[in-house]
Amino acid sequence: MRTQRFRPRQGTPRLRRAGLAVAAVLLGSSVLAACGSGDDGKVSLNWYINPDAQETVATIAENCSTDDYDISVQLLPNNATEQRTQLARRLAAKDSSTDLMNLDPIFVPEFASAGWLEPFTGELADRAIDDDVLEGAAATATWEDEVVVVPQWANTQVLWYRKSLAEKAGLDMTQPVTWKQIIEAADQNDGTVGVQANKYEGYVVWLNALVTGAGGDLVSDTEQGRDAKVDVDSDAGRAAAEVIQQLADSGAAQNDLSVSNEGTSLGRLLEGPSTEDNGSFMVNWTFVYKNMEDGEANGTLVKGAMKDLGWARYPATVEGEESRPPIGGIQVGVGAYSDHKEMAQEAALCVTNPDAQEALAVEAGLFPSRGSVYEAEALKEAYPEDLLALFRESVDSAGPRPQSAFYSQISGALQSVWHPPTSVSPDTTPKESASFLSDVLDGRRLL
């Protein structure tokens, strides 16, 4: 087997060809998924990916293929829950053609507990999670003291804002700011605060960040499964509810608050061509910078607007207490029923290596899970250095959502009680959600 090393390919023509290759793969996915080897006798490893950065991922798959195997890309649905469902159905049926798979970190414990992931052991485990992997990313890659996936890219949220709005409000953005401060600043200066508060996973991301930022947890002792300790009825839970209530009751709430998501909140960030159109503060993922930059380049964003774009650490829930930014991203796992587990694990290490992570960051805005990649010259050319430092710091100090095999039930139960945000009260919501979640985990109530 020849040594694998991913080398980013330069120029759009190659990427366009890779995109066509993805399209061809998708058209023939039902055939490919059933294949274990090609006409040339080489093994075909199926890699089920989420739809992000398809062209870049196709190039990574091509470069990580070897003389012994080819990596064939198969596309999963857009929605993370649907991605989970499709993979779970395959693995529950002991599908041997599911060799590699992209997993949202929240689904890793469930898949590992079910025995659907082939653990990395020995030298492979050491390569998967070494000292270069940032702490926040590494925390979501293990289950019951085993390395069960390899971090590919790590997502985090920061506070994006319009500099002119912060200046008008008199905020010193070089210092940590609280949710209370930015809500009041926006309310008093005709601005808004963008969040993700629809009834979906993004709302739980916000809730978890608020609770962990106040020093608490939604759930603890998650290794106990259904007997996990429900902690949301706490001072931290009430502090989170106070923030949500403050925003919902203020003039800073965007008019679509209860159905807001990453895209809808983004549209208000740099609203308008002048400082009279105040725009917003917004918490959102790392993709924002590239989105805004591309928008100014193609004319969908007014020219010069990027000069007014600022970024800062995720807001603190409680003054004086360090925030715990959200963490997401993608982990690459190997199916436990694959006929080619050894090859698939070597491939997983290749498609997540530093060169591949550099390409994903530069070309698609999907940020590295490895600290060394943030020092790459290509990243420094593509992003401001202080923004890179902020992303890295936020990933490393992130507050992961509960690592539980029953995360889907936990998330669904919390959404049921905490939504809509206009109904949240510190006096009642944490207590009611704790009771409902306990009943759901115990099997006494259904979602």
TrEMBL record:
- Pfam families per UniProt: SBP_bac_1 (PF01547)
> Which residues are the signal sequence here?
1-33
Q: Which domain of life is it from?
A: Bacteria
Keyword entries, A-Z: Signal, Transport
Record SUPFAM superfamilies? Periplasmic binding protein-like II
Using the record for this protein, list the coiled-coil segments as residue ranges, or answer none.
none
Q: Does the keyword Transport apply?
A: yes
Q: Which PROSITE patterns does UniProt cross-reference here?
A: PROKAR_LIPOPROTEIN (PS51257)
Among Gene3D superfamilies, the record links this protein to:
Periplasmic binding protein-like II
**InterPro entries according to UniProt:** Bact_solute-bd_prot1 (IPR050490), SBP (IPR006059)
In the record, the note on similarity to other proteins reads: Belongs to the bacterial solute-binding protein 1 family.
Return the protein name.
ABC transporter substrate-binding protein
